[in-house]
Amino acid sequence: MQNSHENGDPCGHGTREEKNSRTQFYTSEATILPRDGASIHHRKPPALQSHGRITQPFGAPRDLPVLGRAQGGSDGNIVIDNTAIDWTFRPADLQGVKDAFAVFVTGDSMLPKYKPQDLAYVRPRKPPQRGRYVLVETADHSGFIKQFVKWDGATLVLKQFNPAQEVRIPREHVRKVLLVIGSLDA
User: Fold this and answer.
1) pLDDT at position 84, please?
2) Of 68, 124, 168, 182, which shows the fewest CB atoms inside 10 Å?
């Protein structure tokens, strides 16, 4: 009987060939550009088998609609409708959420949290919570992202970072308050 040291595996985790095949599975496709300008190419990982169907390791392809651009300032310019201006990858928290979408951030009023061209992910049916970020759609279909503070009677109270100020909007001017669950840096 051959011990693990004799087959090249001092820890007893299989032969070198078995470890190499496991290592090949976890490599990803990437091009790395060292300072001298030469490129190194890595292999793409294989598709995964899941219940008889082939899936990609990081979720479905681009199936999440980008429905507009959300202005960082109080004079937003998003129009939320059913027409996608782009498509993006769906993060894990939005898997299976049929009405989820994303918006591109414009403006700098929420720096450093959100920067221009960041992608903000929206989960519309989840209620806003104090301290979380929301996409507010106004009655005239403009929109912007702010930090949710509270509903104060018939007034929506939000926090803006740049310049730091409280934003108050009468309820009759608010069409929707949608929870932003995360973002992707531009």
Assistant:
1) 87
2) 168
